[in-house]
Backbone:
């Protein structure tokens, strides 16, 4: 499972996969998805913010697991 797949909103997943995996530009993604360029950037930014939060939560969870194992 990739970090992108941890997102629940398929719009975010689609935009991030198009950008990072398919190497599409934001213009190309906007056309493919039927969004404006500005809305595509907005969704991309929200997705990145959510991934940052997810990574922090995951790192905290892993750190807590390591502490439990030490005990």
Residues:
């Amino acid at each position: 499972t990739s970090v992108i797949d941890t997102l629940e909103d398929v719009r975010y997943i689609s935009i991030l996969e198009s950008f990072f995996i398919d190497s599409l530009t934001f213009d190309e993604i906007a056309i493919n998805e039927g969004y404006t360029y500005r809305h595509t950037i907005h969704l991309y930014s929200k997705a990145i913010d959510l991934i940052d939060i997810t990574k922090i939560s995951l790192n905290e969870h892993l750190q807590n697991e390591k502490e439990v194992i030490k005990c």
Observations:
- The radius of gyration is 16 Å.
- The chain has a mean pLDDT of 85.
- The chain is about 75% helix and 0% strand.
